Amino acid sequence: MAAIRIQEAASHRVDDIYRYTRDRWGTEQADRYISGLFEALDKIEPRGVTSRPIPAEFGVEGYFFRYQQHFIYWRNLSNGDIGIVTILHERMHQIDRLRADFDPR
Question: Whole-structure pTM over 0.70, yes or no?
Fold first, then answer.
């Protein structure tokens, strides 16, 4: 079974999502949202979530799926693990942020 690897940009986004949700709706809701998010990540390999290829115009290779108000972007790593590249809110400008997170310089 492939391991889920949360890459740096995704890790920062999880922290941001938690803080925003906690500050807006409370700790209990933030805990529920993040727990649900990680449950969704665990379903990637057994195909428990429907992932689609990232559109070619984004200029990166990988897959994405939606979890509530966020899009989860991931790719297969060379060692067979799954790399969670980033997590973007539906209102974020996806192409620019995604390119930056897939190819951090």
Answer: yes
